[in-house]
Write a structure and sequence with these properties.
- The complex is a heterodimer.
- Chain A is an all-alpha fold.
- Chain A is built from 20 helices and 2 strands.
- In chain A, β1 and β2 form a beta hairpin.
- In chain A, α7 packs antiparallel against α9.
- The mean pLDDT of chain A is about 90.
- Chain B is mainly alpha-helical.
- Chain B has one domain.
- Chain B has 22 helices and 2 strands.
- The longest helix of chain B is centred in the last third of the chain and has 37 residues.
- The model of chain B has no long low-confidence stretch (mean pLDDT about 85).
- Classes of the chains: A mainly alpha, B mainly alpha.
- The interface between A and B is large, with 35 and 36 residues.
Chain lengths: ~475, ~500
């Protein structure tokens, strides 16, 4: 076995994140009086630099593989890393005051977010089953701890427990599937697996492993029927954590799917396509129908996530690069919307009061018309109304379906989109049509206000000029 | 004079930017918001007038075209342009919005800046719908329209406004998403999203039928046609006056416009195969909905149902062309039907706006829409009563008003398709007169019914100005419709050629 020096420069984003994890850990030790200000600022700086590093390390040109074939640096990895770090930065922007008011403001919060982002980056660049799994666990373990961040809260502990048990189960499934894929291909490297799948060796065993792997991926996404943890975890976790959990890890889950199933097992597409269709349709149906009857807005957004995951899966089932690009666009734009929606809940919460119910949104237009406008944009974006980024996400997925000849799925998808419109409109009804007799003034601090304005502006800006993001997502797949 | 100007872009974006400006200006000062909104609306109407003046009437193709790459990966362009079909509708939009801004002047007290901004943004979006030549751009405007209308009905509407606005939104949303799938499918066949590239694709009839039904789902809800019309009375009744005016004057026209721009030229064989359905539904709208209008006890509901009946005439004219040709009516007969439908659309825009403004005038004073609460209004408001009677006559299709021209053209054309079409369509003249005049009798004439009516004051100068302007327009196009018909005839002729070329 020859040893060759790995090209460390290609892994610059991960190395940078790893170093900064240590720096934040130590810096926070010396910042006991500053309420985690240094950790917060350093984390934001780290995430923004990661976005820049992701593109500066690799953009354009052929994929480069290093670390003995275990690490790949390509356009897709760059987009995934930049998106997850960027989304993490947005959601962190909402967190500080919320955490302080609940006496949860500790440097560990930011540390865990950084480690989770590192895990996501590793997944994005994984070119071997082991690296993929390592990244996933790095992400998952940080998320379990984050969900349990409020030790005093019983719903929080319950949610964390549920998340941990189900998450461990799904990791087990995934690992079991990976072991069979390894058994049939004889290698952990995705490139070798791809070659083995194309050669048609041990096809039955490989399909068996692929099924378990898909179940594991579906768990991580929260696609029905593996969605049970989503509503409880979304509701139980501190909202600042839910905001993070609901946005960036969706991009990471997509990375998992793309690396493992689209790239490694792309030749088994005809096998996993039907399973993905079931997952997609089931998620659309369950997510939309259950969201209709929710009164808790975090829970409603949880079920709405399930329905969005269903839509995202529709992009994957075509098995074409156009479809994958559509799914990537969907994941990124959904991350932006979800960050904004949970950010709004954070902003409306006060010390000792969680704005968790849809009714808590009532009269928002009377209280602050700017916030109401942002909420309007976010909800219409989730519905998929043009003028917001959500429309192009849905449209690209539909486009890939129609081009693949699956018109009936496209029709089904839009019917569920109409059903889904109802519960988003219900939120807007509370915001605009219900009037609050004694409107409480909003007391959100400046920082989060700026972030929410930027978040809403991004939804509108990408809704008018989606071209750049579409080109980015297509370039990730060489289109 | 305006050559080289991006006139259409200005018409789309000036009101939208103006709406944002009104929101900014109205922060605390309603007065400033009103004047800003008025300035924007007047400016837009001036641009629309420039569009009319600069428009070359004899040309069938698109004018004032603008084309910029928008989404490169899918070859989608920001492509605007107007022909004789869309140009009058653009002008109508600018005109109606100005009416709404003036009509809202001191009447709307709850968040006037947001109210005016919503209408201005709506105006820009609607002009975008009429001038978009790229299917995705069209869809973007078509759907975005739902946002301001949803808010207008839901925030400033009547007691049952939330039910009405949700119904409005979900009905129209369901209709339009089907169209989106059809548009994406058409792109796979045509290779681009240009609307005109969709024409003459020569699709098999089975596919054409599906495409046609998808468009029907979108446009039939907007028109609205029987039996998907039930959202309109609810929305109208609960909407504020301005909302009703825009709904009746413009958004309904978008359905009719869609039939001309999409259904007929893209799926001509399916249109031919399914014309019995459209003609049947149109005739039901004319007769049955006309009868329904007669028994209404609510003023706005009555006018809403009469709108559905009048729009039935529009769709009747558009889809009778195949029968006219088959019966030997030839190109001239079919063109008469198409022109009749278009004139009816424009005229209905003015007449229904006038009717809703009149009801708004009454509602602002009495805060009731029940016909039974009125009676003898003429004794207290003689000037208003005169205008109201005139508009009701126009609604009934009295010769000399614009309402007559379109109906007469469609009936005349339908004679060439067959006697019974004309006979059934002709019933509208009786029904329209019946419900309009009976309503007038109960509201305007007779003895003063109660103390509230006795306390009524006649129209003020602002209201009078609105009514006079509308009267002038309605009478002008009633007596001299030629300028309108000259503008649209070449484009309709070209459209007819496209429809017939593949049959």
């Amino acid at each position: 076995m020859t040893f060759e020096m790995p090209q460390f420069a290609l892994a610059a984003p991960e190395i940078w994140l790893g170093i900064m994890v240590c720096v934040v850990l130590i810096a926070d030790l010396f910042d006991r009086g500053g309420e985690g200000r240094i950790a917060f600022l350093l984390t934001q700086l780290t995430l923004l630099v990661t976005v820049w590093l992701a593109f500066s390390t690799h953009w354009g040109g052929a994929a480069q593989i290093t670390f003995n074939g275990m690490y790949v640096s390509d356009n897709l990895a760059a987009v995934l890393k930049a998106a997850s770090a960027g989304l993490a930065a947005i959601t962190i922007g909402y967190s500080r005051d919320y955490l302080r008011q609940r006496e949860l403001l500790r440097g560990e919060f930011y540390l865990l977010v950084l480690i989770a982002t590192l895990g996501m980056s590793v997944m994005a660049s994984a070119s071997s089953l082991l690296v993929l799994y390592m990244g996933l666990e790095l992400l998952s373990l940080s998320l379990y701890a984050l969900v349990a961040f409020n030790r005093e809260s019983r719903v929080g502990s319950e949610a964390a427990m549920k998340y941990f048990v189900l998450g461990a189960l799904s990791s087990g499934m995934l690992l079991y599937g990976m072991s069979m894929i390894y058994g049939s291909a004889g290698s952990l490297l995705l490139g070798d697996i791809m070659a083995a799948a194309a050669a048609g060796e041990n096809r039955l065993l490989m399909a068996f492993g692929m099924t378990f792997a898909l179940v594991g991926v579906a768990f991580k996404f929260g696609a029905a029927p593996f969605h049970m943890w989503i509503p409880d975890v979304y509701q139980g976790a501190p909202t600042a954590v839910t905001a993070f959990l609901g946005s960036a890890p969706k991009v990471a889950a997509l990375a998992l799917f793309l690396r493992l199933l689209a790239e490694g097992l792309g030749d088994l597409h005809d096998q996993w396509q039907i399973m993905a269709i079931i997952l997609a349709v089931g998620s659309l149906a369950i997510g939309n129908l259950f969201a209709l009857v929710q009164t808790n807005i975090k829970r409603m957004l949880g079920y709405s996530t399930v329905s969005h995951i269903g839509f995202l899966f529709l992009g994957l089932i075509a098995g074409s690069n156009e479809g994958y690009a559509a799914a990537l666009f969907y994941a990124i734009s959904y991350g932006i919307m979800a960050a904004g929606a949970f950010g709004m809940i954070i902003l409306l919460s006060r010390r000792g009061f969680e704005a968790e119910m849809i009714d808590d949104m009532r009269g928002l237009n009377d209280r602050h018309s700017g916030f109401a406008l942002v909420m309007l944009l976010l909800m219409f974006s989730m519905t998929g109304i043009p003028g917001t980024v959500g429309f192009y996400a849905k449209w690209m997925v539909l486009q890939s379906l129609v081009e693949a000849g699956l018109v009936w799925l496209a029709v089904l998808a839009v019917i569920f989109a109409v059903i889904g419109a109802f519960y988003y409109l219900r939120v807007l009804k509370a915001v605009y049509f219900d009037r609050d007799e004694a409107p409480a003034p909003l007391e959100a601090p400046l920082g989060p206000r700026v972030v929410i304005a930027a978040n809403g502006g991004l939804v509108l800006l990408l809704g008018l000029f989606p071209d750049a993001l579409i080109e980015l997502c297509r370039a990730a797949f060489g289109l | 004079m305006f050559e080289g100007w991006p006139l259409l872009s200005l018409l789309v974006w000036l009101p939208i930017a103006g709406g944002v400006a009104v929101l900014a200006a109205g922060n605390g000062s309603a007065e400033r918001a009103r004047w800003t909104a008025l300035a924007v609306a007047v400016g837009t109407l001036a641009l629309a007038a420039a569009l009319w003046v600069g428009f070359e009437a004899g040309v069938a193709g698109m004018q004032f075209e603008e084309r910029v790459a928008w989404i490169r990966a899918f070859d989608i362009h920001y492509h605007l342009g107007v022909d004789g079909i869309s140009m009058p509708l653009v002008v109508l939009t600018a005109f109606s919005t100005l009416l709404v801004v003036v009509a809202a002047w001191e009447v709307v007290r709850y968040k006037p800046a947001q109210y005016l901004a919503a209408f201005l943004i709506m105006e820009g979006i609607m002009i975008g719908v009429f001038s978009a030549l790229d299917a995705i751009l069209f869809y973007v405007f078509f759907e975005a329209m739902l946002i301001p209308m949803f808010l207008i009905i839901g925030i400033w509407g009547g007691p049952n406004r939330i039910y009405a606005t949700l119904k409005f939104f979900l009905y129209t949303f369901l209709g339009s998403v089907m169209m989106l799938v059809a548009l994406i499918y058409l792109r796979t066949q045509a290779g681009s999203f240009g609307i005109q590239d969709f024409y003459s694709l020569g699709l098999p009839v089975g596919i054409q039928t599906l495409v046609f039904l998808a468009f029907l789902a979108a446009f039939a809800v907007k028109v609205p046609m029987f039996p998907v019309h039930t959202w309109l009375p609810d929305a109208h009744v609960e909407a504020p006056t301005g909302g009703s005016v825009i709904l009746a004057a413009i958004t309904l026209k978008i359905g009719g416009y869609g039939f001309l721009r999409f259904s007929l030229p893209i799926a001509p064989e399916a249109s031919l195969a399914l014309d019995w359905l459209l003609i049947g539904l149109s005739l039901i709208a004319v007769v049955y909905v006309g009868l329904v209008a007669m028994v209404q006890t609510d003023l706005k509901k009555l006018i809403a149902y009469s709108s559905i009946a009048h729009m039935g005439f529009v769709t009747l004219g558009f889809f009778l062309i195949f029968r006219i040709v088959a019966a030997g009516g030839g190109r001239d007969g079919a063109l008469l039907a198409l022109e009749g439908g278009m004139v009816q659309m424009i005229s209905h825009g003015f007449v229904s706006a006038a009717m809703f403004l009149c009801v708004g005038v009454l509602y602002d004073r009495m805060h009731t829409r029940r016909i039974a609460d009125y009676g003898g209004v003429a004794n207290r408001m003689p000037v208003f009563a005169g205008f109201f009677v005139l508009f009701a006559m126009a609604n009934a299709g009295l010769p000399g008003t614009s309402g007559f021209v379109g109906e007469f053209m469609v009936i005349l054309a339908s004679f060439q398709a067959g006697f019974w079409y004309a006979a059934i369509a002709g019933l509208t003249l009786i029904l329209g007169a019946a419900y309009s005049l009976w309503m007038i009798k109960r509201v305007v004439y007779g003895e003063v019914q109660n103390d509230e009516v006795a306390a009524l004051e006649d129209v003020n100068r602002r209201e009078l100005a609105l009514l006079v302007v509308l009267t002038v327009v309605i009478l002008y196009f009633g007596i001299h419709p030629a300028p309108l018909i000259d503008v649209m005839a070449p484009s309709l002729d070209a459209l007819f050629g496209i429809v017939m070329s593949t049959l």
